[in-house]
Amino acid sequence: MNYILSIITRANREVNNVKQNRKALKIKVSQALRNEVKALSAPMQEILIDDLVTAFENRFAVLNKAQLNLECTVAVGMEVIQ
Q1: How far apart are alpha carbons 38 and 51 in whole angstroms?
Q2: I need a labelling partner for 52 at 20 to 30 A (CA). Which of 3, 14, 33, 60 fits?
Q3: What spatial distance separates the first Cα and last Cα of the chain, rounded to whole Å?
Q4: 44: Cβ–Cβ under 8 A, 6 or more apart, which residues?
Q5: Which DSSP state fits 40?
Q6: 37 with 48: CB under 8 angstroms?
Q7: pTM of the predicted model, to two decimals?
Q8: Per-residue pLDDT tens for 6-63?
Q9: Helix axes 2-32 and 42-75, enclosed angle (nearest 10)
Q10: What are the boundaries of each domain within the chain?
């Protein structure tokens, strides 16, 4: 039972870290694009920033997975064709 609780606790911490990281990334993106999004209404700015952060996170996940797959391929000694 303690093992399950420790897994749940760790998962909750990871979820909180992801939420904090996403919030920080949204702040940075909105600051970087402050002048470019001025013409949009506040709700449209929020939608755009959220979409950009989501796209960034998805692209990062794909690249991390590709890198991991490449490392695994090299680790097992398969020839990688470029």
Answers
A1: 17
A2: 14
A3: 49
A4: 37
A5: S
A6: yes
A7: 0.66
A8: 777 877 787 778 888 889 999 999 999 999 999 999 999 999 999 999 999 899 888 8
A9: 120
A10: 2-75
